[in-house]
UniProtKB/TrEMBL annotation:
<feature type="compositionally biased region" description="Basic and acidic residues">
    <location>
        <begin position="30"/>
        <end position="43"/>
    </location>
</feature>
<dbReference type="Pfam" id="PF22298">
    <property type="entry name" value="Tsr1_G-like"/>
</dbReference>
<dbReference type="GO" id="GO:0000462">
    <property type="term" value="P:maturation of SSU-rRNA from tricistronic rRNA transcript (SSU-rRNA, 5.8S rRNA, LSU-rRNA)"/>
</dbReference>
<dbReference type="GO" id="GO:0030688">
    <property type="term" value="C:preribosome, small subunit precursor"/>
</dbReference>
<dbReference type="GO" id="GO:0034511">
    <property type="term" value="F:U3 snoRNA binding"/>
</dbReference>
<protein>
    <recommendedName>
        <fullName>Bms1-type G domain-containing protein</fullName>
    </recommendedName>
</protein>
<dbReference type="InterPro" id="IPR030387">
    <property type="entry name" value="G_Bms1/Tsr1_dom"/>
</dbReference>
<feature type="domain" description="Bms1-type G">
    <location>
        <begin position="86"/>
        <end position="238"/>
    </location>
</feature>
<feature type="compositionally biased region" description="Polar residues">
    <location>
        <begin position="44"/>
        <end position="54"/>
    </location>
</feature>
<feature type="region of interest" description="Disordered">
    <location>
        <begin position="1"/>
        <end position="61"/>
    </location>
</feature>
<dbReference type="GO" id="GO:0000479">
    <property type="term" value="P:endonucleolytic cleavage of tricistronic rRNA transcript (SSU-rRNA, 5.8S rRNA, LSU-rRNA)"/>
</dbReference>
<dbReference type="GO" id="GO:0005525">
    <property type="term" value="F:GTP binding"/>
</dbReference>
<dbReference type="InterPro" id="IPR039761">
    <property type="entry name" value="Bms1/Tsr1"/>
</dbReference>
<dbReference type="GO" id="GO:0003924">
    <property type="term" value="F:GTPase activity"/>
</dbReference>
Length: 238
């Protein structure tokens, strides 16, 4: 039996098939389809860096917002107007160890020929200003002072002409500055115990110190001076 020679028959069904081209980059239409219904997420870190660049800007903005809200409240309600209105609350804070918030309140009352009815929170009513003022002399307790700063209409700082503001006083100022503050006023006690020729320099030095925390302040009121004390009360009452 003879072998038949092998014949290669072309298979017409077999064709070379090349893989379709797939771009590694999505087309515009693919990107649109992929993004349908999705919202771009912004990280917390991005959000925090898009706003204000430093703490000073944030504090200034918070201060302006607080003042704006307060002005709107006063304008709408007029709750402080007149002797029958709600008293303005003034928290008194001693920043130096040799001054007393109670003593400061007593000097404020003395300037309008009055005597505090008691120690602690006390109400001042005078025909001169036609406005009730509620004074809260605070002891040197951090938590109490921070809490009072949240509800007071004014913060009255008492500094000394003899001793510098100590670390506790600076801590109080930093804490109040960071949490947001009501209107503040700076005062000085014990000025009469120093030479008269040094009074101006002492007040300038304390004003410079105060401006480090509250740049808007323009004056340090002497509690030993009746004229300055009355002017301070007038500013609070108006």
């Amino acid at each position: 039996m003879t072998e038949q020679p092998h014949q290669h028959r072309a298979n017409t069904k077999l064709k070379q098939q090349n893989k379709p081209f797939k771009s590694k980059h999505l087309t515009k239409s693919s990107l649109r389809d992929k993004a349908k219904g999705k919202v771009e997420r912004v990280s917390v870190k991005q959000q925090s860096t898009r706003g204000f660049s430093n703490k000073t800007d944030r504090r200034n903005t918070a201060k302006l917002l607080q003042l704006k809200k307060r002005e709107e409240l006063f304008r709408k309600t007029k709750i402080f107007d007149g002797k029958d209105g709600t008293p303005k609350v003034v928290a008194v804070v001693a920043l130096c160890p040799d001054v007393s918030s109670d003593d400061a309140v007593a000097k404020l009352f003395a300037s309008v020929d009055q005597v505090p009815a008691n120690k602690g929170a006390v109400l001042m009513t005078t025909d001169r200003f036609k406005q009730k003022l509620q004074f809260i002399p605070l002891q040197r307790n951090y938590i109490d002072i921070m809490d009072a700063a949240k509800v007071a209409d004014f913060l009255l700082f008492v500094m000394s002409a003899v001793e510098e503001v100590d670390k506790f006083g600076e801590m109080i100022l930093s804490g109040i500055q960071s949490q947001g503050v009501p209107s503040v006023m700076a005062t000085i006690s014990n000025l009469e115990s120093t030479p008269a020729k040094k009074h101006s320099d002492i007040k300038k030095s304390l004003l410079s110190f105060t401006n480090h925390f509250f740049p808007e302040e323009t004056k340090v009121h002497a509690l030993d001076n009746t004229t300055e004390t009355v002017n301070l009360l007038r500013m609070v009452a108006n």
